[in-house]
Amino acid sequence: MRPDLAAIARQEQFLEVVDRNEAMRRFLAAIEPEPLPAESVALLDGLGRVLADDIAAPVDAPPFDRSVVDGFALRAVDTVGASEAAPKRLILNGEVLACGVVARIEVEPGTATVIATGAALPRGADAVVLVEETEIEEMDAATVLVLRRPAAPGQFIGSAGSDSARGESLLRAGTTIGAREVAQLAAVGIDRVAVVRRPVVAVLSTGDELVAPGAVLRPGAIYDANGAAVAATVIENGGVALPFGIVGDDADALTAAMERALEAADLVVLSGGTSKGAGDLSTRVIARLGSPGILVHGVALKPGKPLCLAKVRGKPLVVLPGFPTSALFTFHSFVVPVIRTLAGLGARREAQVEAVLPARLASERGRSEFVMVSLVERPAGGLAAVPTAKGSGAVTAFTQADGFVEVPALTTGLEAGTPVSVRLFDAAGRAPDLVVAGSHCLGLDVVAGHLARRGLATRILALGSAAGLAAARRGECDLAPVHLFDAATGRYNTPFLVPGLGLIPGWRRMQGVVFRPGDARFEGREAAEAIAAALADPAIVMVNRNPGSGTRALIDARLGAVRPKGWWNQPKSHNAVAAAVARGSADWGVSIRTVADLYGLGFLPLAEEHYDFVSVEARASHPAVAAFRDALAGPAVRTRLAALGLEPAGS
Ligand SMILES: Nc1nc2c(c(=O)[nH]1)N[C@H]1C(S)=C(S)[C@@H](COP(=O)(O)OP(=O)(O)OC[C@H]3O[C@@H](n4cnc5c(N)ncnc54)[C@H](O)[C@@H]3O)O[C@H]1N2
Ligand code: MOO
């Protein structure tokens, strides 16, 4: 059946795009979140949970007066005046007070009783003396304790309730139970605790294109990243994730899944299908579920504009945008605070640092924009905030970033050098030992992996050769991996150096024509011959490269003024070229052998590309830079590079 293109083109609009504070205000006003009721759990199961009530000590700790040393329990008054010259002598009572032993004999005037650390003090005694400060004499039928100094009343006694007294408040509601709190509770005999019930959050991902991680990716499909990411964030914030998996773009299936989710959970989170494309029906389904329904649909926020906040059947229901970065940002901003409130947890502890922008940061006017950044040290001191984002569809920005900056709604961008506050993802995060900014290569992962096993953390910012070189010029990285071809000199990399920058030779990467194996138009031919034949065949589609890349220079040299089909498709990476050929949207392109192997493509060698490391001389003496050089020169890394088809310099 022909799809109803007109209906698809005529999608409904967002209700109204509101400011993010207004969005949160409406959401909270409707759902009025409060800590959930308490449940009783065994003490150890309480670890990590939030106390629902204040806890008062039911007994004294310690429960009785006890000795805190090994020695003798006695009456201080009997030792008054004791000295080297005039020692005092006390008769030892005929019992030994070990821990757990209850005294039978009262300490009468002129007597003492042997007592161990932790044993209950006998009646009559009011002090304990250290065993090493006494002597024993056998006299007639009695054993006598000799003291050469007086004891102070109360010495070496831990009195009942001195740790915590019965009725005293020990822990307050809202405290997260850790090992120290467990110790406290166990010490007063508590074996069960009342904790706030964890909010159960149902997590659904919607979209016909989604495939669960672990399954095979069919053409056009993509892995469900949001399901796992949202569930993990729920758990990190004191909730229980109830995974509902993937629901296709089918209104009835989605309605049924949402109904089950609302039944089972305290809060329901969906991702995908909130925007205006074909198949975006999450928001339409909410309307079927009852009032008040949608509270907010559309927030002046980037990423996250299509966020939808709703309340149905008395429960909060949120539809996150499908793009993972948008989904996680909006989840953190709008849903995490609600989960934490339900869980009885306070607001997340936030930390922020000041930094400056190394380059102009463009921004869309009209939406507050959150830009993820990686922090690097500047040569003049202080930090630079380097944007790591690759658009809302990318998740790598999260793992590479230290935090984010906010660009206000009414600006079109921030100039280079602007001071910004960076809100950190992890307040305790560790700064990397080595910052590498530039072109990415699988070989770089080999070196970074080698350093990681030696305790050195490398931050790789995949910015591309040109931006890496610019960062190196500003002194904002240790190394910039580049493969920049200079057409004027016909040389790689060295022509781009300026004073203050050096070059550490890296490796050579063989570039060549990539094609699907078995394609007789390429298989078994010489590269030059195969390209010439491809240019003569109008059925063959190529994939080009971006202007300025070394590979593009190579392609231009072969093509001259010819513009074959596919020439305008100019992706920025070796991988994108290989992926286009592998999935059949192009028949050939130029990439490197390592990548061709990775995609299972055929390869006809053309020329070598030099992948080297621009080094910032001011940082060249840093131990991590020295370790990097050593790693590059060492046999372990060289062998692994060679196995990837990369030829280390000097070999
Ligand atoms: N004409 C317009 N198009 C779009 C607009 C707009 O205002 N007008 N908004 C854009 C913005 S901003 C975003 S963000 C996205 C969000 O769209 P949806 O929330 O409807 O999400 P989908 O269309 O379902 O998916 C978008 C994208 O994300 C991928 N996706 C979805 N779910 C997952 C998942 N669980 N794990 C990983 N990736 C997922 C999906 O395959 C799409 O690639 O809309 C813009 N469009
Ligand atoms: O809001 Mo979308 O989340 O910009 O990408």
Can you describe this structure?
By secondary structure, the chain is α+β, with helices and mostly antiparallel strands. The protein has 5 domains: 5-34 and 198-342, MoaB/Mog-like domain (Molybdenum Cofactor Biosythetic Enzyme, Chain A, 3-Layer(aba) Sandwich), CATH 3.40.980.10; 38-61 and 162-196, Molybdopterin biosynthesis moea protein, domain 2, CATH 3.90.105; 66-158, Molybdopterin biosynthesis moeA protein, domain 3 (Beta Complex); 352-424, Beta Barrel (Beta-clip); 444-453 and 478-651, D-Maltodextrin-Binding Protein, domain 2, CATH 3.40.190. The protein contains 16 helices and 38 strands. The chain has a 6-stranded mixed β-sheet with strand order 7-4-6-5-9-8, with no helix packed on it. A hairpin with a 2-residue loop joins strand 20 (308-312) and strand 21 (315-320). The mean pLDDT is 91. It binds ligand LQZAQKY5 and molybdate ion.
Spatial ordering of strands, largest sheet: 7-4-6-5-9-8
Just give the CATH class of the largest domain.
Alpha Beta
Under CATH, the topology of the largest domain can be stated as D-Maltodextrin-Binding Protein, domain 2
CATH architecture classification name of the largest domain: 3-Layer(aba) Sandwich
* Structural class label: alpha+beta
- What is the overall silhouette? elongated
Uncertain runs with pLDDT below 50, 5 residues or more?
none
Number of strands: 38
Radius of gyration: 36 Å
Q: Name the helicity range.
A: 10-25%
Ligand identities: ligand LQZAQKY5, molybdate ion
Quote the distance from N terminus to C terminus.
62 Å
For the largest beta-sheet, the strand count, sense and barrel status come to:
6 strands, mixed
Mean pLDDT: 91
The fraction of residues assigned to DSSP E strands is 25-35%
- What is the domain tally? 5
Summed up, the helix count is 16
